[in-house]
Every structure is written in structure tokens, then in C-alpha cells.
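Practice problem 4.
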């Protein structure tokens, strides 16, 4: 065997394609665990992919004309990944370029709960914190929420569907679409979006003027 899935025979090589998913899973798992500059670049690539998808699928949604690094009046700095505005709603989307290593892809309860805490809960808390602050501080040092925006909708987006532990309005945008959704679920939610259906929900923030 030359490698795990390539076998050397007398007059050539045989490639066992059935083992390719294992190989690619292993490779992406290693990439997914990278941090620092490489991890940041991987995150930036995923953010651009989500942004490009929304631009192509939903051209009527406009990006918030604002710097990614927001400076609040007290000097605090926060960043947003992807934004869109439609009518009176600003959508702030936190992107998580999560991966599914083979060890997480077996449906084991303890692994699912750990992913839920480290990915789902962590990202929702992060985006909620930002959107709540923007709703309460619509004008900062280098940003201003547009005057016709009345609502801020906090969403997270990941490449894979994640296990959600509870069917509640905190975790779900609709009965079918979770707040930590895949890119195509995000597109589906935005295509059918009606603000009246989300007023009073925990992810829907009223802008205070």
C-alpha cells in the first residue's frame, strides 16, 4: 500500500475510492482545527462565501454600509461578519466555519451536547450580545444604524446542520429553520421573511432612538 487508499500492484496502482470520504474528513478535520492566522483566513473565506451567496440569491437585500470593526462610544470594539438590510430590518449574521471531524459525526450524545455548547450556544450568545448592544447604541464612533431601520435580527450561519437541543424560539427562527442555520436555510428564511412574525422573539431587537 502506497498510502491508506492507494495500493501498488505489479503493473500499476489501484485507488480505493470507498476510502476517500475518510481521507477528506481527516484532512478537513485538521484544517478545521487550525487557529491563528490560518484559522482567521479560513473564517474570512467562509464569510465571503456566505456574502456572495446572499448577493446572488437576494440582490434586493443590501449590505449595511459600515466598517466591519465597530467602535462604540466608550471605546469598545466589536466586529460583524455579514449584514443585510431589507426594509426596516437589519440582519446581522455571525458566521462559524465549523467542521465535522469523524469523531463528531457518529451521533454520540455526549459529543452532540459538547458541540451544542461550544458552537451553537457560543455563537448565539456572541451574536445576541452584539445585536443587543447595537439596538441600544444605534450611533457609535464610526457607525450609525440607518434611520429607517427599526429592528435588528440576530442570526448565525455554519456550513453544516447542527444538533439543536430544544425546540424554542431562542433556537429557531421558524419551526423548521434554526438560528444557527446553513447558508441555504438562511436564504430560505430571508426569502420568506416578514417582520411581523418575529416581533417579541428573543433574537429580534427593537432599535432604540
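Answer key:
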Amino acid at each position: 500500500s502506497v498510502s491508506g487508499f492507494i495500493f501498488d500492484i505489479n503493473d500499476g496502482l489501484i485507488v480505493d475510492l470507498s476510502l476517500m470520504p475518510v481521507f477528506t474528513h481527516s484532512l478537513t478535520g485538521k484544517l478545521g482545527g487550525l487557529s491563528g492566522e490560518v484559522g482567521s483566513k479560513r473564517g474570512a473565506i467562509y464569510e465571503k462565501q456566505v456574502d456572495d451567496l446572499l448577493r446572488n440569491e437576494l440582490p434586493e437585500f443590501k449590505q449595511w454600509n459600515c466598517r466591519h470593526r465597530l467602535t462604540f462610544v466608550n471605546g469598545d470594539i466589536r466586529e460583524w461578519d455579514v449584514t443585510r438590510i431589507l426594509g426596516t430590518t437589519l440582519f446581522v449574521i455571525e458566521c462559524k466555519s465549523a467542521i465535522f471531524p469523524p469523531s463528531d459525526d457518529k451521533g454520540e450524545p455526549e459529543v452532540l451536547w459538547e458541540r451544542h455548547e461550544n458552537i451553537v450556544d457560543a455563537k448565539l450568545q456572541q451574536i445576541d450580545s452584539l445585536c443587543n448592544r447595537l439596538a441600544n447604541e444605534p450611533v457609535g464612533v464610526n457607525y450609525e444604524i440607518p434611520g429607517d431601520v427599526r429592528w435588528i435580527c440576530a442570526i448565525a450561519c455554519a456550513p453544516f446542520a447542527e444538533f439543536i437541543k430544544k425546540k424554542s424560539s431562542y433556537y429557531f427562527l421558524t419551526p423548521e429553520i434554526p438560528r444557527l442555520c446553513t447558508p441555504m436555510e438562511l436564504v430560505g428564511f430571508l426569502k420568506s421573511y416578514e417582520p411581523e412574525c418575529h416581533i417579541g422573539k428573543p433574537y429580534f431587537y427593537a432599535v432604540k432612538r
